[in-house]
Write a structure and sequence with these properties.
By secondary structure, this protein is mainly α. The chain is built from eight helices and no strands. Keywords: Coiled coil, Lipoprotein. This is Putative lipoprotein. It comes from Hyphomonas adhaerens MHS-3.
């Protein structure tokens, strides 16, 4: 082990590692729950370019398709969207509380690039989940057998959107703190 590496590890605060851990857990939960598709990076892009992907395959791999927005009973689909949105909103709130805790810290090592990137990654996953929920709601609402009021779903999605908006502001403040810490050490 290089002595400089040991110093970097020793300089990490508990909240910084907590923020990165919470962000990673949120991103993993979003994929595991099926709210968003797994990002397989360059390998996935290369596979798509080489083997192609049909529109039918892309449609079958959406959140709406996975929850049966086009075929399951509308009440079940709406309940699933509300439940998933609540879980996504609660999870993002937890990650944001970790970011807020980090923002309250003082000192030279309070905001790192890794912290900013991990929080922004969680925010992007939340935005993707929100779009998935909206898309599923649109699909079920367009069905001819849809005879339910979507106001409760709209209300929940609005609450999730508010948490996302707050998270955007937190991400901006976290990035500003990182920039100010980084410029102060230069």
């Amino acid at each position: 082990m290089v002595p400089g590496q040991a110093l970097v590890q020793a300089g990490l605060s508990q909240n910084q590692s907590s923020l990165r851990t919470a962000s990673t857990e949120y991103c993993d939960a979003a994929v595991d729950a099926g709210w968003v598709k797994s990002n397989s990076g360059l390998a996935g892009l290369a596979n798509t370019l080489i083997n192609g992907i049909t529109n039918d395959q892309a449609q079958a791999n959406t959140y709406a398709a996975r929850i049966g927005a086009g075929s399951e009973a509308p009440a079940l689909v709406l309940a699933r969207i509300v439940s998933d949105s609540q879980a996504a909103r609660t999870g993002l709130g937890k990650v944001s509380r970790e970011a807020d805790s980090l923002l309250e810290e003082t000192g030279a090592q309070t905001a790192t690039r890794a912290d900013v990137m991990s929080y922004e990654r969680a925010l992007v996953r939340a935005q993707m989940a929100y779009r998935s929920f909206q898309s599923a709601l649109g699909e079920v609402a367009a069905r001819p057998d849809m005879d339910m009021d979507t106001a409760p779903v709209d209300k929940e999605l609005g609450a999730f959107e508010d948490v996302i908006d707050d998270a955007r502001e937190t991400a901006d403040r976290l990035a500003e703190k990182y920039a100010s810490v980084n410029s102060a050490t230069s």
